[in-house]
Write a structure and sequence with these properties.
single chain, 11 helices
Length: about 180
């Protein structure tokens, strides 16, 4: 079975990765772990040092351990890994979401989804625009988002359907008398 050393043949390669990139490599390795889906961080770390190779010198043991710990923490923070409920605290298992990320396409979709978190979006944009964004149709997603904003502004301001774009926004937010202008200032 492949180990971390097969992905990152030397300590410097491992240390060059950020927690998210290393975390995704760890996730792939954890999905292949035998033993009923439970594992410890040692399952990934010990083989590096047991290989007894100059590529992983002893003086880099602590920086490598910390990098792996950061990536491990990132996996937990992302909701991909948790303490195994049927084991002691040193044992972990993948959360269902983590187990589903099997292919490079799954990982890419996951990462793109985190660029535009659904929690930050208005419900209307989350429903209509986010799927386009996740597919990589960025120009269409931006166009659709602006269209949705126009519809909401037009309806809130009670303006006619033929008013669009900059003209719509100027009319809706006219400084002294626009229907959506805050005139309390």
């Amino acid at each position: 079975m492949a180990g971390l050393i097969d992905y990152l043949p030397d300590a410097d390669s491992l240390l060059a990765l950020g927690p998210d990139d290393l975390g995704m490599i760890l996730l792939e390795l954890l999905q292949k772990q035998p033993g009923g889906g439970n594992f410890t961080k040692s399952n990934l770390e010990i083989p590096l040092w047991n290989a007894n190779t100059p590529a992983y010198p002893y003086h880099k043991r602590m920086p490598v351990a910390r990098a792996i710990a950061e990536a491990w923490q990132w996996l937990q923070n992302e909701g991909l890994l948790m303490v195994a409920p049927d084991q002691s605290n040193d044992w972990f298992c993948l959360i269902r979401k983590g187990a589903k990320l099997k292919s490079a396409a799954d990982v890419d979709a996951y990462r793109q989804g985190n660029v535009l978190p659904v929690g930050l979006l208005h419900l209307r944009l989350a429903e209509k625009v986010r799927p386009m964004f996740l597919r990589g149709d960025y120009d269409v997603a931006v166009f659709q988002a602006f269209k949705e904003v126009e519809v909401v502004v037009r309806n809130a301001a009670g303006l006619p359907d033929d008013l669009v774009g900059v003209k719509l926004m100027r009319e809706a937010f006219r400084p002294k008398s626009g229907p959506l202008t805050d005139t309390r200032r």
